[in-house]
Amino acid sequence: MSETKLEDLKPVKSEGVNLKQFHNQQVEIAKIEIIQVPSKFTVKDKQGNHLLQWVLRVSSPVLTAIGEGDTKIEFRASELFNLIQDDEGKLIGYPESPDSNLMKFAADIGVKTPQEFIGKKATIKAYDKTIDGKIRTYLKFKY
To answer: How many domains are contained in the chain?
Structure first.
């Protein structure tokens, strides 16, 4: 390995993306899926572990991407809405209360049920979050 001197080190433009450019942009909802995610708010099983939480993930189309192949990273707005489950973790349905985040979002995009979300316009919100001392920008929906 050859010796490199600090004065020989030059700046290189790195690949990156400014996600704040998507703030307040309107997009059509492209995908909606029911998934389970870890949660510290669900009931515990017999071993004392929290059950997974059923959620509805609502996503925009891919807004931008960096890299290629295995290193490709796609960026889209997405939102998780808690669904109703019983004490055994079985999915029951979605909250119907107008005060629930899911129903607030539905009202904001002009629909009454999650089944109507695909293709409806929603507004993106870009927000910063500090993780491990680094500020990262995330995209979700306003409602």
So the answer is: 1
